[in-house]
Amino acid sequence: GKGKWKDFNEKDLLLSYNALKVLEARYLLKDPNTLRYIETPQMLFRRVARFLASVERKYDKSEAEVKQLEEKFYEMISSLKFVPNSPTLMNSETRLGILSACFVIPVKDAMTTPEGDGIYDALRATALVHQQGGGTGFDFSELRPKGDVVASTAGVASGPVSFMKVFDASTDVIKQGGKRRGANMGVMHAWHADIEDFIRAKTGQLKDVQLQNFNISVGAYDYFMEAVVKGESVPLINPRKTKIAGRDHEYYITKARGYMNEEWIQEVIISELEEKGGVVSLDESKVITVDEALIIASKEGAVVRYVNAKSLFDEIVKGAWDSGDPGLLFIDTINRRHPVWYLGKINATNPCGEEPLLPWESCNLGSINLEKFIIERNGKVEIDWDGLAEIISYGVRFLDNVIDANRYPLKQIEDATKRTRKVGLGVMGLARMFIKLGIAYDSVDAIYLSYQLAKFIFYHAYKASIEVAKEKGPFPTYDSKLYRDIWESALDFNSLLQIAEVTDKPSDYVKKLTSVVDKLDFDLLKDERLKYGLRNSTVVSIAPTGTISIIAGTSSSIEPLFALAFVRNVAVGKFIEIDPLFLEYLRKYELDDPEVIQKIAESGIIGDNVFMPRSLRKLFRTAHEVPPIYHVLHQAAWQQWNDSGTSKTINLRSEEPPETVEKVYLLAWKLGIKGITVYRDKSKQQQVIYFGVKK
Ligand code: UDP
User: Fold this and answer.
1) Best label site of 25, 82, 221, 351, fewest CB within 10 Å?
2) Could you tell me if 679 and 579 are in contact, meaning their C-beta atoms sit under 8 angstroms apart?
3) Whole-complex ipTM
4) Of these residues, 142, 250, 272, 354, which one is catalytic?
């Protein structure tokens, strides 16, 4: 038809060469027999929009309404203002039906269990998820340590790390036939008897060798971090040997592991007593102090030995400095700020950390391209807040529909996902938005803008979720009293700076630019929620947008520009990229001379080239030139207004010493970040992106 023809002509021109390459390699549908393409990029976007709008028929919408929504969805995707996560693009309307990117799968200390959560049940579930392009996270802390007994065979247990290798090998095999490389997050909590093996599983001689399909993170509780600061000892525990580590361990041994602070316990008990038969099954008599639990665990022989927390932490830091692994997950922060905390304890996240999830939960993501919301009004560059609010609202509706349209590989995943209906609306193109506003990434103005944007996006996403709840009802486990509003524990902007010991103040320019955010009324929002409920237990999440940012032709997630010119090594080949925005600025200064460009391309950065205009040097500072503290502050700013997690890589220069990693990890904990990962340049052989076209 005519409309389609127009789409092809105009919309396809928005796609960059790299976007087309990526779409062609994995996303555009092919005829399975002839291997010929059966769709163009616009047909793909149309397929996705049509599929996700069609869900509304179930909710008694008229054909006209469904069609109208399809147009809205198509418009926002094809204009590259909003792009859903890869599985939604790949699998909508196809035989494979997983549309979500993030999964957490439980692993119990048994080969298989009737509930289907033993080690090999988890392996099977993982294969099914990877096959369709999803990423999986696991907490391996329930597994008995290496050398422990196996009663049924009188044998010796090989320990969690050896089972992780099985998951790793399986991931390798599935990768061959799957839609994309499967990714895993392996978590072990700091109290586990095998924690030292775990910390060393990917560093030193094992770097670039072992667990190549895993990111690994240590589950660090507040008690552990406090012991690190004070240089105290902490117990290492064998989870099999303690009764309090059984199935309902969340409310026993976790206390022993310092999980629940007194205040939290009080809150749980009191609300339970008030609710009478609420969702939490907590027996008050079983609540014990950390010391009491340790005495019990010792009597049972569950405490294997004590280690100095600081020594353990130093090992973690050394590993991360050497190879990027392990990262840290702050389990207390995650659970304290989990809106539906009353459903249980979160022990793990998906591979890149943006989704802390309960066992079997999945979450689908989609990201807004911030660069598209810069407008020129009366000769001034501004943010189109109204336009942004509109896309946020449609974005949440789209993501909520994904939950209904999804074909889940397992009943447990479907049930857990539909109980909480978590969705994750995120962003990309932040760095480019900063540049267009003339704000340097490593400035207090930029941190302020991050903070305000995060607040605005959260507000409107939450509001949209209330709107959908009005029509379709709240998520099934919504409890108006127990549901926890994350803004009640958000640090304010000045506190962030104070904790990080930064003394600069935001300028009047950036305050004026974001003044609309100061008018948002959260009390009113809460009243609305109490009246109508929420459709989704979480609404935002900052994903890495590794592929969809290439499709959208913008900078990834909330990261600074990685390099001004570089070779990108991805599964589908090598790309040379010169940042088009940078090129534009060079032109403005009449510096777009081939020799200049070649020179910059060699290193990927301008660096401190004194012949370059100062404003260019400031605006185009890249990931490794940005001081680590600004990386951490951006992550912290986005995390305050995020009910899920914030994926971020703290990129460090190759020369950075281990002390920098130590500082970053401690600061992350103090700033209320949920999980932290560093990557020191050149610390691994295989790096997704290399600087400079020459290398
Ligand atoms: N992911 C995965 N394999 C990959 C890339 C991503 O399983 O090769 C999953 C993983 O859970 C990750 C999530 O997808 O955390 C989101 O990653 P990203 O935003 O980079 O995905 P995109 O939608 O851009 O492909």
Assistant:
1) 25
2) no
3) 0.94
4) 354
Query: So where are the chain's domains?
Result: 19-97+363-532, 102-349
Averaged pLDDT score across all residues of the chain: 89
Catalytic residue among 85, 213, 215, 350: 350
Res 280: pLDDT: 38
Instruction: Write the CATH number of the domain with boundaries 19-97+363-532.
Output: 3.20.70.20
Reply yes or no on whether the pLDDT at 85 is more than 90. Answer: yes
Lowest mean pLDDT, pick from 24-28, 134-138, 531-535, 645-649: 24-28
Look at residue 610 and tell me whether its pLDDT is greater than 90. no
User: Does ligand 1 have an atom closer than 6 angstroms to the CB of 646?
Assistant: no
What residue's CA is closest to ligand 1, atom 1? 135
**Band (54; pLDDT cuts 50, 70, 90):** very high
Q: How far is CA 524 from CA 285, 459, 531, 691, in A?
A: 39, 11, 11, 49
pTM to 2 decimals? Answer: 0.93
- First and final C-alpha spacing in the chain: 48
Tell me, what amino acid is at 547?
A: T
pLDDT of 247 reads 32
Does residue 693 have its Cβ closer than 6 Å to ligand 1? no
For 102-349, which CATH class? alpha beta
Residue nearest to atom 5 of ligand 1 (CA): 183
The finding on whether 628 has its CB within 6 A of some atom of ligand 1 is no
Residue of 547, 569, 688 with the most ligand 1 atoms within 8 Å of its CB, for mutation: 547
Active site residue 238: no
Q: How far is the CA of 100 from the centre of ligand 1 (A)?
A: 10
Q: Is the CB of 544 under 6 A from ligand 1?
A: yes
Categorize the per-residue pLDDT at 342 as very low, low, confident or very high, splitting at 50, 70 and 90. confident
Cβ 26 under 6 angstroms from ligand 1? no
Tokens of 185: 């997050």
Residue 284 is a catalytic residue = no
Which of 352, 357, 542 is the best mutation target for the ligand 1 pocket, counting ligand atoms within 8 Å of the beta carbon and taking the most?
352
For the Cβ of 547 lying below 6 angstroms from any atom of ligand 1, the answer is yes
d(CA 30, CA 15): 20
* 366: nearest Cα among 321, 397, 387: 397
Question: Does the C-beta of 548 come closer than 6 Å to ligand 1?
Answer: yes
CA of 570 to the centre of ligand 1 (A): 13
The most distant pair of C-alpha atoms in the chain lies apart, rounded to whole Å, by 79
CB atoms within 10 A of CB 94: 12
CA of 367 to the centre of ligand 1 (A): 12
- In this structure, of 246-255, 260-269, 390-399, 637-646, the range with the lowest mean pLDDT score is 246-255
Cβ(218)–Cβ(329) below 8 Å: yes
Predicted local confidence at residue 343, as pLDDT: 83
Structure tokens at 561: 């520009």
- Identify whether the C-beta of residue 81 lies closer than 8 Å to the C-beta of residue 428: no
The pLDDT assigned to 256 comes to 42
Q: Which of 164, 304, 288, 307 is nearest to 240 (CA)?
A: 304
Q: Is there an atom of ligand 1 within 6 Å of 102 CB?
A: yes
Structure tokens at 515: 């003044």
CB 426 near ligand 1, within 6 Å: no
Catalytic status, residue 213: no
The domains spanning 19-97+363-532 and 102-349 adopt the same CATH topology:
yes
Per residue, what are the HEC states of 227-273? HHHHCCEEEEECHHHCHHHCCCHHHCHHHHCCCCCHHHHHHHHHHHH
| Low-confidence winner among 57-71, 316-330, 408-422, 607-621 (lowest mean pLDDT) | 607-621
Q: Is the pLDDT of residue 550 over 70?
A: yes
The atom number, within ligand 1, closest to the CA of 185 reads: 11
Distance 522 CA to ligand 1 centre (A): 32
Is the pLDDT at 625 greater than 80, yes or no?
yes
